[in-house]
């Protein structure tokens, strides 16, 4: 699946900015910046990976800048960025 650069989300409190780009290597690469990464970093990464895999995206670089987003917000932002990156409408 071809992926182009795309983003979704904001830098507001309670949100997360997700930026997706093509990965020249195999697999998903997650770069997380969060003030709560020590406590919740693994959970945030897990939600991102599970959401992308559910959308059949197996190769991408994801930069996530978290501002305290809940799991449901993370899933929504990853899904929106993935739709923009692939052009594949998952809501149709």
Task: Describe this entry's structure for a reader.
The protein has two helices and four strands. The protein has 92 residues and is α+β, with helices and mostly antiparallel strands. It has a single domain, classed as 2-Layer Sandwich (Ribosomal Protein S5, domain 2). The protein has a four-stranded mixed beta sheet, covered by helices on one side. A hairpin with a 7-residue loop joins strand 1 and strand 2 (16-21). Helix 1 (37-54) crosses helix 2 (71-86). The longest helix is centred in the middle third of the chain and has 18 residues, at 37-54.
Quick overview:
The protein is of the alpha+beta class. The chain has helices at residues 37-54, 71-86, and strands at 6-8, 16-21, 28-34, 60-66.
């Amino acid at each position: 699946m071809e992926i182009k650069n795309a983003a979704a989300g904001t830098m507001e409190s309670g949100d997360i900015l997700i930026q997706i780009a093509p990965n020249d290597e195999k697999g998903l690469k997650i770069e997380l910046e969060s003030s709560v990464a020590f406590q919740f970093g693994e959970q945030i990464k897990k939600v991102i990976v599970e959401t992308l895999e559910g959308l059949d995206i197996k190769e991408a670089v994801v930069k996530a800048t978290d501002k305290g987003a809940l799991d449901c917000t993370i899933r929504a932002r990853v899904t929106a960025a993935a739709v923009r990156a692939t052009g594949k409408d998952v809501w149709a």
